[in-house]
Amino acid sequence: MDHIVEQSGSYSNVGHTKKDLQNRLDSIRRSKIQTSDSDSVISYFTAKSVTKSNFFFDYTLDEYNHFGNLFWADSTSRSDYAFFSDVLAFDSTYRTNVYRRPLVMLVGINHHHSTTIFGFGLLCDETVDTYTWLLRTFLVAMHGKKPKSVVTDGDKAMHKAIKTVMPESVRRLCCWHLERNVQTNVQDANFTRAFCSCMMNFMTEDEFDLQWVSMLEKFGLQNNEWVSAMYSKRKQWAETFLRDSFFAGIRSTQRCESMNSYLNWFVHCRLKMYEFLKNIDKALDRIRNTETLNDYQCSTTKPIYSTHLLGLEKHAGQNYTRNVFFLVREEIREVASLSIVNCVQDVDNCTYTFKKFGIANLIWTTRFIPSINQIHCSCKLFETAGLPCRHSFSVMKAIDMQLIPSSFMLHRWTTRAKDFSAIKYACEATPTPIMEKARYGSLSSKCGKMCYFASKSDDGFKEANGEIDKLTFRMQELMPSSPIHSDNVSGVQHVHNVKDPSMAATKGSVRRKKKYRCEAT
Q1: What whole-number distance in Å separates Cα of residue 291 and Cα of residue 307?
Q2: Segments making up each domain of the chain, as ranges
Q3: For the residues of 432-462, what is the DSSP string, one character each?
Q4: Which residues form the SWIM-type domain (predicted)?
Q5: Is 350 exposed, middle or buried (0-12, 13-18, 19+ CB in 10 A)?
Q6: Angle at 382 between CA 376 and CA 384, to 5 degrees
Q7: Is the pTM of this model over 0.85?
Q8: DSSP 471-493
Q9: pLDDT tens digit string along 246-266?
Q10: Structure confidence at residue 6 (pLDDT)
Q11: In sequence order, which residues have a C-beta less than 8 Å from that of residue 59 and are 6 or more positions away?
């Protein structure tokens, strides 16, 4: 075993393990924080709310003045939510801090088909009341804008909170967690495969019921309580019943799990809350560098075109972000595997019927309406993921269409997704705070590209630095002296002498909470 010898301080000339030295370093680091851990966190976030525009945080205290729940979201998270709020995914499986408190990441998916973080919650427990507080606080930070759909694991408390706070949002159970639960509760690998087939495959509702009944008879599970309970929840997990709802291709909370794995490089279970949050900020900066690199790649390079539908592929490459283009190109390639088995011309539309080569029992119908240049397919890929499907590309090929119809190109997947002037909700009915976040996000994206280029040369840096100072002064002059809206609800408050958090409570315990909110415009 490795040993380390300390020559000064409280250590004498004797051997100590690396663990002893780590404990000593932790002790020294904690001793430098004169106030409580909780006060340090409040001071840290209060300073950020003053110095960084649109930073938001909110927290609770229990009846003994211990630090309770915490939520925070910076300006980038809030502006990203203004653009990509259609889908929300979250779970709370991460506890790498000294208080063993679950960290909840509320995430979505951006125009590069990459994970974007909308906010964080550090919770004292996992009860219905705590999740309800988290979601309501999240909506306060996002000015009441609710997601169209939510993806979570099977946690009952979380489910009840979503139903209470976001009743209009379509809820989807994580397919990854569900597959694990099937194996745990039934313990039959063959049944698990059959269940996943019901969960993931394309079929009508009648076909689903027939396959379900056949599956239960095959495995003798007609009276299994867990299986019966899952059937009653089928509209929350079966692809058959979710094909009309947009999920941006998200079927599980694996994006949250991936973020958790990434955070392992920055945090560990010895960290107090203040150190834990600072390290998460570092990790968040690294994560966001990926979007800047993706933007740079889209603006400076072109993909290699390789399919037989060159016109359509090139149009996709010119408009979609690179990662989304790769998904669309795969659909174009699959056109070669389809055969048109029927075509019915009506007064105002034409309906095509397709089958996959070698699989006669899989049939899709695609309807083309020339007057409005729209395509509707029974596979519902566009409705669920926002991507044109292989069947629609087959129709485009049949009518010699060289460009993808604009109605079939979802704006949120394009390189212009964060251009404020083009977003759908930029209208008079849109609440002012959301429009402000959208403007901020659009400008931040464009400035990020400019800063990247400017940093590559000394002359570019000097010129950009000077122009930014001039433009900042000019924008300050244009800012209304008496703004109509203010994000700051009650001004910056600092509650002193807050006690450090207690260890995370088990499910079922409920604490009374007092509320404080700090935010700056």
Answers
A1: 27
A2: 1-32, 37-292, 331-408
A3: HHHHHHHHHHHHHHHHHHHHHHHTTSHHHHH
A4: 368-400
A5: middle
A6: 125
A7: no
A8: HHHHHHHHS-SS-S--S-SS---
A9: 999 888 776 656 666 666 655
A10: 38
A11: 42, 67, 68, 69, 70, 71, 516
